[in-house]
Amino acid sequence: MKKLFTISLALMLCGICTFAFAQTTIKGKVTDASDGSAMVGVSIVVKGKITGTTTDGDGNFALNTNTQLPFTLLLSSIGYTNQEVQVTQANQTLDIKMQPSTTKLNELVVSASKVEESIMEAPVSIEKLSITELRNTPSFDMYDAISNLKGVQVNNGSLTFSSVNTRGFADMQNWRFIQLVDGMETNAPGLNYPVGGNSGPTNIDILSIELVPGASSALYGANAFNGLLNITTKDPFNYQGLSAYVKAGVTVQEAGGTNPLFDFGARYATAINNKFAFKFTVGVMQGTDWTANDDSYYINNTRATTLTNEQIGALLQTPRNSPNYDAVNVYGDEVGVPVNLGSATPVTINRTGIREADIVNYDVQTYRFGASLHYRITEDIEVNYGFSYVQSDAILRHTTIYPLVNFEQQLHRLELKGANFSLLGYYSAENAKDSYAMLATGAFIEEGRKSSAAWGADYGAAYRGEVAGITAANHDAARAYADRDLIPIGSDAFNQLRSATLNNPDISTGGSKFIDRTSFVNVVGNYDFTQIKDVVEVQVGGNYRRFNLLSEGQLFNDGPLGFNQAIPIEEYGFFAQVGKKLFDKRLSLRGSLRYDKNQNFDGRVTPRASAVFALDAKRKHNLRVSYQTGFRNPATQETYIALDIGAAILLGGTRDNIDNYNYALPNGATVSGSTIFQNLVTLPSFLAFSASGNPADLVPANLQVLKQERNNTIEVGYKGLIADKLFIDLNYYYTEYEDFVVRLTTISPDVGRAFAVYTNISNAKVTSQGVGISLEYSLPEGYKFGGNYTYTAFDADEAVRLNPGFLPSFNTPENRFNLSLSNSNIANTNFGFNLKYRWSQDYVWQSPFGKGDIPSFDVVDLALTYKLTKLKSALKIGASNLLNQEYRTVYGGPLIGSIFYISWTYDQFLK
Q: What is the C-alpha separation between 463 and 472, in angstroms, rounded?
């Protein structure tokens, strides 16, 4: 591994050789060609170098360079056509006029191919939000803004936890999608997915967001499987000075009421002699989370996988006062108590339980801090160090409900980069701190309020008519009597009981806190040979990553009954990409190949090939076709989890994890994981055995050891610009999944417990397909009208039939669309508006938490803005879900209400 790293480093340093020439100073002014106004913040870079600068508040710039004459300056600014300017004389003064552009013809992206290219000629589907679009969005935060992009679905588990999904098969624990910030994967190391706002930068520091739906494993490695989100922040050399924003508003929800909401962010950056630069960012968000109060009958994973749709429908009609009622957002009511009702056999009666709002503290805060130092060693090479820290509250809704309290994530990065290479190393760590599991919390608090034995005895006595004043055979009266002396919710005694449960990490003694201090180190290298020999595009790169799973046995199998130490996971990969343009550069061909190896799985090769053909010489109409492959190393939890959640034990499916797992019996003896795994039986057969008592009804589960998940996608598309006014983007894709990773609930006869084991569906393929259409029309006087439509479907019927207990978890509506109308400067008055509408069809949500219907919904967002150009400021009045039509995106999650806010932004680059 050291040898490989040395070779990679040598490749990076190939670009370091430079030659000294007499320094040239270039000065000038950049103005808007349409009205002659000075342009602020225009990026000016020497072509082929990292040396550059930006224009000041008067449009002026000065650039010192040792580059040999003649050379070319590259100018770019959002909303303007990119421009190249030849410099032929030393100490030249330039007068540059830039042409406004209202189309996407000159918009550049990098995520599709890891090289800068026109979005019109990208070989795969890609969506982008520019700094201007983010500034004008009516959405309260970045994730809401993303939800208006074509093909994108954002699931909201709480106010501060949104999960981005593309092309289906995702829930709040989205292991098939990665998020990058400046090249760093910001998925939480132990959870293996982005934790909402914890995983992104301060809004004021975001330069652009690019989203690539579908597999990108050939370039980005494992887990870039169903899509990736790539966030780029502002370079301190190009974006200097102070910028800040403050938002104040309210959240409005029928269940939670009206509550204040506050959001603040600030950024400061400066450069010294264009050699050294630094920036600092801070952010604070405070508010009240959405209240989850779904009182319907809870269709948990067991019910969802063992009952027919007719049986589930009957359960949903169960009266709320039923003796065995189990509500979605009530906890402790899933505990069944055997009660003597006067018959020969005790009858199971469920405890009353506690509402989520009585356990969870819905006050949420997010605090973030970031800093980076940048030094340009030469005009070709820069070294930088960055640090970010986020502490946040959020609620994860997956297997059970996990309130993440004071959850921390920090990243440290060190990078050496040039115009054609980069070598990036970074360290990411999380700390669950005060987070806990809701299901266990509810059960333990309910038991502490009154023991189940005492509660059941009182219930039975009242039902049998043995309590004076209570009519016999009355379940309501019997429950009221059994609940009469429960510790009151909200009392000091209740709060002490709650604190004792939440602060105890030992489930065997009534604790629900979980510990997770997992981290990883990742080194990523990339070298582009194209600038050396611009005949064929050649790019190579690779990465090495090492996880350190550390949970003290509270999440992973690193406790005394397992490895009894932190668990390491190592993986590495290399890729090469070759491209060639033919026929006067109207045909662009690209192919890439990647090899990846994880210590738990066989090495995997993933190819990708694409072709883009420009139908016209001006490249305003482009056809594309691509073949993409993806693979996914199962996540850290899928591989090494060993978590007892009460109803079942979650067990990672790798051979290494199974062989090192042990279950402790009440008598002190242990049963090995290998024995348990070998003897597991299917859940439906165990239920049949429980009813019949006939051992012949038991069916072996025959689970296979966990493997990597794979997919293959064919995509065709078209991007076009008609009359320089109408932008069209069309795409169709078809994907086949192999060895689909699932979690199947089984029963261990050896220990008498349910085990939910991660394994693969290998006896049937799962497929999905979809269509995307996006239109954007530039109207006169600066108005823009746009819309997009997405169709998505899947087929997992055979896999469900052949694998009892498999829930596909597609969790995506078949049809959805978005509409928008905007103008950022109405009649040159500095007033602007942005109106957005989105609609989503109803669909069925399936996850390890359970199964339920998500009704169709529509949402209207609106923002009104006014720019105070002399003060370099903007005021905005905004509403997210303006009509307050509450909607739900996650089964077991809250109804999302409205956000009304007013904001002020100061930015010296504000135009």
A: 5
Distance CA 97, CA 94 (A): 10
**Secondary structure letter of residue 697 according to DSSP:** G
104 has a pLDDT exceeding 80: no
**Contacts (Cβ under 8 Å, ≥6 apart) of 699:** 681, 682, 684, 685
CATH number (2.60.40.1120, 3.10.290.10, 3.90.76.10, 1.10.600.10) of 21-98 reads 2.60.40.1120
Helix, strand, coil percentages in the chain from 3-state DSSP, rounded to 5? 15, 45, 35
Nearest Cα neighbor of 655 from 671, 670, 634, 669 is: 634
Q: CB-based contacts of 892: which residues, under 8 Å, 6+ apart?
A: 292, 294, 328, 329, 397, 401, 849, 850, 852
The strand ranges marked E within 419-566 are 421-431, 519-528, 537-549
- Within 8 A by CB and 6+ apart from 310, the residues are none
The average pLDDT across 714-737 equals 95
Query: Model-level pTM greater than 0.85?
Result: yes
CA distance 676 to 658: 9
Four-point Cα dihedral 820, 826, 831, 832, nearest 10: 10
Burial (CB count within 10 angstroms: exposed 0-12, middle 13-18, buried 19+), residue 321: exposed
Give pLDDT tens digits for 328-364.
Answer: 999 999 999 999 999 989 999 999 999 999 999 999 9
Rounded CA-CA distance 718/129 in Å is 20
pLDDT band at 807 (very low <50, low <70, confident <90, very high): confident
What mean pLDDT comes out for the span 854-883? 96
Question: For 518, phi and psi rounded to 5 degrees?
Answer: -75, 150
Judge whether 579 and 590 are in contact, CB under 8 Å.
yes
At 620, the amino acid letter reads: K
Asked whether 851 and 807 are in contact (CB, 8 A), the reply is yes
Give the DSSP letter string of 209-254. EEEEES--HHHH-TT-SSEEEEEEEPPTTTS-EEEEEEEEEEEEET
For residue 625, what are its two tokens? 């076709």
530: nearest Cα among 488, 481, 464, 576: 576
Q: Compute the half-sphere exposure of residue 694: CA atoms within 13 Å on the CB side of its CA.
A: 6
Residue closest to 859 by CA, chosen among 813, 811, 897, 812: 897
Locate CATH 2.60.40.1120 in the chain. 21-98
Instruction: Collect all residues with Cβ–Cβ distance below 8 Å to 349 and sequence separation of at least 6.
Output: 323, 324, 336, 337, 339, 456, 459, 479
**CA gap 438, 460 in Å, rounded:** 28
User: What is the maximal distance between C-alpha atoms in the chain?
Assistant: 105
Single out the residue of 908, 703, 898 nearest to residue 140, CA to CA: 898
